[in-house]
Amino acid sequence: MMTDLKLDTALHLVSINPHWGIRLYDEGQQETKIVADVHWLECVDPAMPVLCRMWRSLVVILNRLCLLVLVLLTVAIATKLMRYRWQQQTRLQQDMYRMVEQIIGVLKRHYDTCQTSDNLQPYLAIPHVRDMLIPPQQRRSNQKLWQMAVKFLSENESRVRAEVQTIAGEDFTVWRWLPTVMNSADSTNGRKVWQCSAFDTQQGMDAYCPTACLKIRNMFNAEREHGSDWVIGVVDAILEKCAENDEIVHIALDRSSKEGCVYVKCRRPEAAGKAFRALHGWWFDGQLVTVKFLRLERYHERYPEAKDAVTSLRPSNDQKISLSEPFYKSTLEIT
């Protein structure tokens, strides 16, 4: 009994002398001044040995380091996942563009064949075009890619019309190729123009620009070009489209390329990213332009003179011919 009285007295003295550095806590771990509710005590500034203080400080530092490492690891994993997702989306978009080009190629060839043969219908069933382009073992895995290409053609390609026709007694949705009707002025001077944008290519492009060099496809058709002025026209078209980018220092055309390839070098990767966004996914002279980044080493292997290129390029004139009214209206331009 005497012991309990002494303990209560001691606790009371502690509660009224906070400068002693002892705190009283109740069962709910809340600080209290009621002696009867006290369950445990805490010393604010205990007199610990030097080794104990060092060990305590070390534990605090290690805990904070572990927390910092965990945060950095989380950020690194999240960044890697975002970059991987962006690369997957970019790769899927590039594959979709290639699929669209292949579909247009099939329809163009079929249209040309129909001009010399009266036994063919001027349209192709959409499933038939798919079966021509995708092997049976790949159709399931490429189903999403095919659906994206079909949707793209439906929304953005005015030269391909979808309609319903009866084939062998069964109704099919078919594609019919509508030849481009050029304006008389365009047919005389052969000008090349930017026509419309296929996608919002700015989405996600700021995140990662790996190099300052680009490879651009479908800027020209080597079999159709003649003379020498067309080279200047293609270079001017790129510079005019990238008018807000004054860091393009080298442009080269691969005249032997069947894909109409043009190579572009900028001062910085960020400038190459701006050019990518300005060119990728646009229709130019009736062809869908696609762009990809190219390693600097490979660019210099192909064009050694580009190593010393530092002067910003400018169009050969101020007429901006490639940015004039396009010779056909796409669905994007109509809406």
Could you give a short description of this structure?
By secondary structure, the chain is α+β, with helices and mostly antiparallel strands. The chain has helices at residues 2-16, 50-116, 126-133, 143-156, 184-189, 229-241, 269-279, 296-302, 331-334, and strands at residues 22-25, 40-43, 124-125, 160-167, 170-177, 194-197, 213-217, 248-253, 262-266, 282-284, 287-288, 290-294. The termini are far apart.
Question: Could you outline the blueprint of secondary structure elements for this entry?
Answer:
Blueprint lengths: L1 H15 L5 E4 L14 E4 L6 H67 L7 E2 H8 L9 H14 L3 E8 L2 E8 L6 H6 L4 E4 L15 E5 L11 H13 L6 E6 L8 E5 L2 H11 L2 E3 L2 E2 L1 E5 L1 H7 L28 H4 L1
Antiparallel strand pairs: 1-2, 3-5, 4-5, 6-10, 7-9, 7-12, 8-9, 10-11
Helix pairs in contact: 2-4
By helix and strand content, what is the structural category?
alpha+beta
Q: How many separate helices?
A: 9
Strand order of the largest sheet: 8-9-7-12
Largest sheet: 4 strands, antiparallel
- The N- to C-terminal Cα distance equals 93 Å
Sequence stretches where pLDDT stays below 50 over 5 or more residues: 182-188, 326-335
Give the DSSP E fraction (strand runs of 2 or more residues). Answer: 15-25%
Percent helix, as a range, is 40-55%
Average pLDDT number: 85
| Beta-strand segment tally | 12
Q: Helix-strand pattern, N to C?
A: HEEHEHHEEHEEHEEHEEEHH
